[in-house]
Amino acid sequence: DVQLVESGGGSVQPGGSLRLSCAASGYSNGMSCMGWFRQAPGKEREWVSAINSGGGTTYYADSVKGRLTISRGNAKNTVYLQMNSLKPEDTAVYYCVRDSDWGQGTQVTVS
Predict the structure, then answer these.
(1) Which stretches of the chain drop beneath a pLDDT of 50?
(2) What is the pLDDT of residue 74?
(3) Is 28 helix (H, G, I), strand (E, B) or coil?
(4) CB of 18 within 8 A of CB of 83?
(5) pLDDT in the model for residue 40
């Protein structure tokens, strides 16, 4: 079975940093574009960032551009989201996505 497992969430003060990880397993179709979404309490889920299969092209929502950095691990089946200069409005559950598969989410709280 395919699986996406996120880790690295937690609580941090405004201006702090966190690094989220997402490990993909069980896929037989090679590398694929992967990304992150987030959902804050009472709000709709929103797209945050994406990275192409090779890791050379990245995309960001305007709200996080310049503060969050997406990258792939050497094995390409792991994706990271380095989060710097965090703001209270970044508080949300962050989900890793590949194809139509979603991870279970990891909570990020900035306060």
Answers:
(1) none
(2) 77
(3) coil
(4) yes
(5) 97
